Amino acid sequence: MSDPLTTPPADPPAAPEVNADENRRQVLYWRLLARLFDSEEQPTLEAASVAVAGDLGLPPALLDPSVSVDNLVQRFPELGEELRDLMAEPEDAAAPERVGADEVRRAVLVSKLLLNVFSTGTGSVTATQLADWQQDAAWFQRALGCEPGQLRSRPGGEELAGVLAGLEGDLVRRMRLREVLADPALARRLTPSMSLIEQLLRDKANLSGVALANAKALIRRYVDEVAEVLRTQVEKTTVGSIDRSVPPKRVFRNLDIERTIWKNLTNWSPDDQRLYVDRLYYRHTARRTTPARMIVVVDQSGSMVDAMVNCTILASIFAGLPKVDVHLIAYDTRALDLTPWVHDPFEVLLRTTLGGGTDGTVAMALARPKIADPRNTVMVWISDFYDNRSLLTDFQSLHRSGVKFIPVGSVNSSGHQSVDPWFRQNLKDLGTPVISGHIRKLVFELKSFLT
After folding, report:
1. What 3-state DSSP class applies to 62?
2. Among candidate residues 168, 225, 232, 158, the one with its CA nearest the CA of residue 195
3. Taking the CB of residue 416, how many other CB atoms lie within 10 A of it?
4. DSSP single-letter state for residue 58
5. Which distant-in-sequence residues (6+ apart) come within 8 Å of 228 by Cβ?
6. Contacts by 71-74, CB closer than 8 A, 24 or more apart
7. CA pair distance 187, 265, nearest whole angstrom
8. What is the pTM of this model?
9. Helices marked H in 119-208 — which ranges?
10. Each residue of 159-188: b (16+ CB within 10 Å) or e?
11. Residues 6+ apart with CB under 8 A from 162
12. Which has the closest alpha carbon to 59: 79, 29, 35?
């Protein structure tokens, strides 16, 4: 047995290696959380974060929430490239074994984006502040790897797009919109968005003079921008069967080379090593088109702004197609036939009144007489379907008559869809499930019927 008095003590366990970069990154994220949940600055965290940014050669303005991301990129253009795709990590990207300076630098940039977009404060908002936030949100989307406005169409991006829309809607509600619209210089600072258009449509009855003119200009601008996008989607969606009763045009671009060779193989001359062609074959390109009537019924109550804007624009686009007779009806507790203005969605939106109750039976009474040839008619019904349940009987009757019935669920500006579960299940059982998601689905359904 060893003598405890003479045996040297064992070496103490080695202290874990300190990773300074990991500690600095932790400081940045603690500072971010503190600022997101409490407007009061934490002096120690602020001073430490400024020191970290300085060590990395980054400008102190990156840590100042009052400086917009867009302004920062204008002053330091090199940051623009760093911000693009900053948070668009590849799925198979593995976390680094050891945090280094690059991860700390990334934490500074990510903190800037998150703080500017998600910490919107309280109190009134100016037109300039709204415009700055919209630009910051655009940079946030670029950092996620998509262009502004495309986040909703990305897998898993719809919920985050809804959060951003909700933040923007809150900023718009906190803005003294009537005062801003009354000043042409301030009104020009506004960038039209769904949240802003929703507020304008709800408040248009209280506007007059310069304020009303500026509101109309913003609505017109937004309608034109959305129309351009939807028109492109309609043009790109090609459906419909080939009409073989129409002889193919005998032009070179329609020449079917493969079929021509195959059909003339019996004319192959081994001696001459040549294929003698005695008949040319051409591709059929004509598509079968049928004159059709499209009746679009839109619920204008509650949170139906997205549906009203997108579907009235879509109706106007289809109304411009040959041999398509489009009718448009909007309703709450009363129904309004907007068919005379269907070619101009701007005028349609000015004639709608958002809010109030819902009674789809009044819209059905106005729509049913428009059905002359059921098998040559499509009815698009856009609603959240929190409505009179006797409507289901009307929908069943339409379906049995041969009308192509397309129910479309409502989507509000925050990105959340709300459809009465009872109607959703019964329409599914009827064989006409409620269309939800991207408007491309509705475009495809309509073109499938009309071509």
Report:
1. helix
2. 168
3. 14
4. -
5. none
6. 71/132, 72/112, 73/139
7. 72
8. 0.62
9. 127-143, 158-173, 177-182, 184-187, 194-203
10. ebbbebbbbbbebbebbebeebbbeeebbe
11. 152, 414, 415, 416
12. 79
Amino acid identity of residue 221, one-letter, is: R
pLDDT digits (tens, 9 = 90+) for 308-346: 777 788 788 777 777 778 899 988 888 889 999 988 888
Across the beta sheet with 404-411, the strand order is 335-337, 324-331, 292-299, 377-383, 404-411, 417-418
Q: Amino acid identity of 76?
A: F
Higher local confidence (pLDDT), 330 or 303: 330
> 411: exposed, middle or buried (C-beta count within 10 Å: 0-12, 13-18, 19+)?
buried
Instruction: List pLDDT tens digits, range 54-67.
Output: 888 888 888 888 88
Whole-number pLDDT of residue 364: 93
Q: Answer whether residue 7 shows pLDDT above 80.
A: no
User: Is 32 exposed, middle or buried (CB count within 10 Å of its CB: 0-12, 13-18, 19+)?
Assistant: buried
Q: Which residue in this structure is represented by tokens 């248009």?
A: 204
Residue with structure tokens 């009134």?
A: 124
Q: 242 pairs with which residues across the strands?
A: 287
For residues 115 and 212, what is the distance between their CA atoms, to the nearest angstrom? 35
Count how many residues are written for the chain. Answer: 451
Query: Where is 153: in which H helix or E strand?
Result: none
How far apart are the C-alpha atoms of 100 and 295, rounded to whole Å?
A: 61
The tokens 């002889």 sit on which residue? Answer: 247
Q: What is the pLDDT of residues 227-272, one digit of tens each?
A: 777 777 666 654 444 555 556 667 777 788 888 888 888 888 888 8
User: Bridge partners of 268?
Assistant: 275
